């Protein structure tokens, strides 16, 4: 039988289930990635589950999101994460070393391996011939403990790549074109696999850009073959010995087919406030901008910065524009400095920030009210930038740099100067100190966890009740993101290790009264929420499930869920249900009361449940997609309780 690359990776790591699309499979995980916005909870979960040491080939804890130290919360948590990495046997990347995804790509990513990360953009490392997936933190904690990762067997969406980029067009335009075609949920339960003659025109970092934003398509992952370009990249990083070739067999097939001709692409823009709201640049050309932002995990490569540097070299950015440079790693910052690119940015009037995620996650660099921000970041969900009424456009480094010069969104093909030709560095800096190595076990087990005053233990999780009477506390529409469920940014993320405090921000973008209303009835049985399509798109942050759970959320009923958030809800004992008849959402109102009867046995006996709407003579038909394993977890009140029960036996 002939296999494509995705099928080979899954087959080599399959420990439970069969490779039948839509059925649950368990995969052995070789590597894990955690970052500080999600990793703090992962480390607390490892402690709560009594885990002694990481059982993976390599696990790494990065500090790249919560870098602003306006008080003691973030630095305290950085010390906690460093101590936890030492205690549990993880690599550790300290503040300022860089964004997790490109650093992991440089130092640890290995063709043929699986990678699970508590960050939805972990899929970026699929550029290296890996099966790289984002998940909720507790799934990653389980993987660190040596447990399989359970996911629905995806279909494989083959994309044949042909041609090469014209001038002023690059990898960001390629992935934006895919989003224009398929939207933010078009690839749910699929892995994108890119193949074809055009791959020779995509560098490893170009592939990273495309794989990174596969998350925005709703994909389980994105996979590229491991070929000579992968080998070249690893050799430049001093890791050629870790390279293996991994390509599809002759005659391999795909469940879905697509073709991407690089030669036919032009500059693309994602308009506010969705990565799927993509149009050719001509449709928004001329709109004024306040900010132009270069960097993030979605454009992390040397070329991405160097081409912008050469565009602004000897020129001056427009008055009133904030031109923000966000290097993606300390290693990248050194290379850009040595090649004169940092000087170009500064002389043009740009602002240099530390290596990290920064404004991408709303950690500083928030745009002014009522002004447009042009960014090379992967997401532009409402309020993600840190400004509630933000207006964020997503684009390539070429568009961002040229537009910074003109002060308005500009088609770079109309520039009065030639397109800069950028050559990849023949001898880039190799900084092995971006990751501290794990301590030997005998030394690690003596390490004490350093807990600052902001760290609170995870509250006990109640078992799923059999009968419930739940008011609908929120009714929402389509494409509600995890940023809207629980915002990121400098106000919120410092409380990531303190569930009672972070819960105060829950759904504030949707309804500022939610927290107070939820607390009033939390001890009276809790509540439900209802919504439309693609509920929970975006970040993998499990706080978007944990915080509503803490506030008494028992059931979420929607038309359909984004993959990671659905799994996070199930992991923390919030029952995720979907409407059998989608039009039933229209008949529900905020304040309606839902009557659940015989629920514990009901979800075990059937994938459908009937729920009465109190006082309305109406019955809802709902269904779940939980496996037998997840039903057991749900009945126990979540994965932490399930693990404790197993360890006690």
TrEMBL record:
Enzyme class (EC, first level): lyase
Q: Where is the Aconitase A/isopropylmalate dehydratase small subunit swivel domain?
A: 514-581
RNA-binding among the record's keywords? no
Q: EC number(s) on record?
A: 4.2.1.3
State the reactions this protein catalyses. Answer: citrate = D-threo-isocitrate
Name the GO terms of the biological process aspect.
tricarboxylic acid cycle
InterPro entries linked to this entry: Acnase/IPM_dHydase_lsu_aba_1/3, Acoase/IPM_deHydtase_lsu_aba, Aconitase/3IPM_dehydase_swvl, Aconitase/IPM_isomerase, Aconitase_4Fe-4S_dom, Aconitase_put, AconitaseA/IPMdHydase_ssu_swvl
What are the entry keywords?
Answer: Iron, Iron-sulfur, Lyase, Metal-binding
Q: Where is the Aconitase/3-isopropylmalate dehydratase large subunit alpha/beta/alpha domain?
A: 8-407
Alphabetized SUPFAM superfamilies for the sequence: Aconitase iron-sulfur domain, LeuD/IlvD-like
A GO molecular function assigned to this protein is: aconitate hydratase activity
Q: Name one GO cellular component term.
A: cytosol
Q: How does it assemble?
A: Monomer.
This protein's name: aconitate hydratase
